[in-house]
Amino acid sequence: MKSFEVNFDGLVGPTHNYGGLSFGNVASQSNSQQASNPKEAALQGLEKMKALMDMGFVQGVLAPQERPDVAALRSLGFAGTDAQVIERAAKEAMPLLVASCSASSMWVANAATVSPSADTADGRVHFTAANLNCKYHRSIEHPTTSRVLGAMFADQQHFSHHAALPAVAQFGDEGAANHTRFCRDYGEAGVEFFVFGRSAFDSRYPAPQKYPARQTLEASQAVARLHGLSEEGVVFAQQNPAVIDQGVFHNDVIAVGNGELLFHHQDAFLNTEQMLAELHGKLAARGANFQSISVPRDQVTVEDAVRSYLFNSQLLSRADGSMLLIVPQECRANSRVWQYLQGLTAAGGPIREVKVFDLKQSMQNGGGPACLRLRVALNETELAAVNPGVIMTPGLYDTLTAWVNKHYRDALRESDLADPQLLLECRTALDELTQILKLGAVYPFQIN
């Protein structure tokens, strides 16, 4: 039976803004308070989805969150009508209003961790929504994320959904941004690679000193247990604390993997040789020929990697067995990174081609091509069981483009978030979107 890796890209929400909310994310903080362009951001994301679809990849779309999150503001003591809640929050606690308007759910690499049926004990595809409890503006996402994923992957014969882990620091979970799967074929048993920044309970593991380590070992272990993964099918590795302190807030900012290949910076991990040996051995036992490409620090520095998002790229397998690397245009603008990539593709290794995309609106807020997608490996039967409304087609692309042009503003500043009309615009847009994507009632305003 044929199997696919399906990329479900996050649709950028109508309140896309530069709130500078993510401590440890250099791009997010450096562009704080600039005017954003939600319409341009959403259209850039849709163009990337269409391009991958046109190249023959199965592409899906994942709906954004309802923002502003009025319910979250009410839980913090703001009362009255929806308009009064927004007005009072803007007057008394603007940072909370900004947080409640964050469109960071567009980066669906943080939405959940996904294990395909070939790896799990019960032979179903497992989803665990990420609690994202390191940052308030993201910690409020997982209830809606769970409902949206449940509407997309509803067939319980094929799909199993788990609630987010306990929302405490010891179980900080950032989803697929710290999770990669290696395999010979998407339909065969593979090895799932969990990367953590610190241990909550074991002091033997060093921790960063400047920025927070968002993923704990204990959270990764819990997800592996929930998904029914075998010991032979998992590897846990620690991210280098020194690179976290340089702005590498997730593993997908310093490494990307696909199929039998890990593409990573020389300084990405601790105990790198031991980790690579474990991956090689466990994948060999499953018939895979694991390879790694380590980018030397004397060719590309960690600072270069963070500024260009070289590793926050999509590594895609093509029909001829070669791999395609999807990178943001910031990689071409960095001379050292671009020189490295030119040499990489000329070397005749597994990565044969690099394609560049303009994702400036997302990049300025700290997310590149890999942040915008959640990878789900599915066989033909499972793909047929996915809600067809969320699978990209030429018709859906045209419909979503028209929807964005109809509903989105082309400029948004912090002061605009206090406009009660913005909430009405967003709800009108999202109500229409759920009909387009055939999701049913997934947003609080549709349910309550």
Automatic annotation (TrEMBL):
Keyword vocabulary terms for this entry: Arginine metabolism, Hydrolase
Physiological role: Catalyzes the hydrolysis of N(2)-succinylarginine into N(2)-succinylornithine, ammonia and CO(2).
Enzyme class, UniProt record, top EC level: hydrolase
Name by which UniProt lists this protein: N-succinylarginine dihydrolase
EC number(s) recorded for this UniProt protein: 3.5.3.23
A Pfam family recorded for this sequence: AstB
Binding site for substrate: 19-28, 110, 137-138, 214, 252, 365
Entries under InterPro entries matching the protein: AstB_sf, SuccinylArg_d-Hdrlase_AstB
Similarity section: Belongs to the succinylarginine dihydrolase family.
